[in-house]
Amino acid sequence: MSSTCFLFPGQGAQFVGMGRDLADAIPSARELYERADAVLGYDLARLCFEGPVEELDTTDHSQPALFVTSLAALELLRRDQPEVVANCTHAAGLSLGEYTALVFAGVMDFETGLEIVQQRGRAMQDASEAVSSGMVSVLGLDPEKIAELCDDCREDQVLRIANMLCPGNTVVSGETAACERLAEAANRAGAMKTIPLAVAGAFHTPLMQSAVEKLTLTLASAELSPGRIPVVSNVDAAPHTDPDEIRALLVQQIVSPVRWEDSMRWLLAQGCEPFYEIGPGRVLKGLLKRIDRKKLCHNIPE
């Protein structure tokens, strides 16, 4: 018997106009944006539907925007294929997307999840502004080689692997000058391409430590419940339903590498198929195809 898995995207998948068709067509999706306004204190629907892109792309705005829009996309699937939603057995989300997965799994309700995501985005934005930093995607080199290059290029700065996404796609995070040295070294070492990412700072590194401290306080007061299905953590690529474990892992996630490839391989080992990428973009489907191109993955919305 197959096991259906829902995947939720992370920061970077946002675009101006996302969610507009969902809100226009589905009353329950529109209601999510209205409920979000009450939590956030600003018009999230306007920001998602109309921009401006510079405002939407900031960490403190893009994270709540993706969280709500992905859950709005889930309402589309709930309307059109309720049996798929009812029979889903596993969930996972890329970095920020893990919070969306946890709401779907019943670990936290919508308002609680959104409040945490808002605080998380603000804390990460503040940490990013404290030190000039960024992230670089390295294509075509294995992680072991990239780790060596990080050691060679780090000098006295922060530089480390932040995301292990799929074979041949690893993201490095660190201080700006160190990232620039790493990109040059990776190109010399035979990388197919290095791509500076449009993010505020060095996510999933110790440069986010101040965000850890703020998120710890936020999560300590949040009401979490046992998950009705397991959600695979980015930190250890293992399934979790226990609220205390999840709380601790969400704190660690801020400064820990995202083990997305390992997470997908664990899900594949459980026999998961089909997969559904729920929310803006097609990134997670593409990563899955690089891990196992035969596995079926639907995008919601298409």
Task: Describe the overall structure.
By secondary structure, the protein is of the alpha/beta class. The chain folds into 2 domains: 3-128 and 207-300, Malonyl-Coenzyme A Acyl Carrier Protein, domain 2 (3-Layer(aba) Sandwich); 132-197, 2-Layer Sandwich (Alpha-Beta Plaits), CATH 3.30.70. The protein contains 14 helices and 10 strands. The protein has a 6-stranded mixed sheet, sandwiched between helices. The model has no long low-confidence stretch (mean pLDDT 97).
**How are strands sequenced across the largest beta sheet?**
8-7-2-1-9-10
Strand content: 15-25%
Structural class of the secondary structure composition?
alpha/beta
The succession of helices and strands, N to C, reads: EHHHHHHEHHEHEEHEHEEHHEHE
- How many domains? The number is 2
Mean pLDDT: 97
Oligomer: single chain
Number of strands: 10
Assign the CATH topology of the largest domain.
Malonyl-Coenzyme A Acyl Carrier Protein, domain 2
For the sheet with most strands, the description reads: 6 strands, mixed
How many DSSP H or I helices?
14
> Could you estimate the helical fraction of the residues in percent?
40-55%
Tell me the overall shape: globular
CATH class bucket of the largest domain = Alpha Beta
Distance, first to last CA: 26 Å
> Architecture of the largest domain, CATH level 2?
3-Layer(aba) Sandwich
Radius of gyration: 18 Å
The unreliable regions are none
Q: Write out the CATH superfamily name of the largest domain.
A: Malonyl-Coenzyme A Acyl Carrier Protein, domain 2
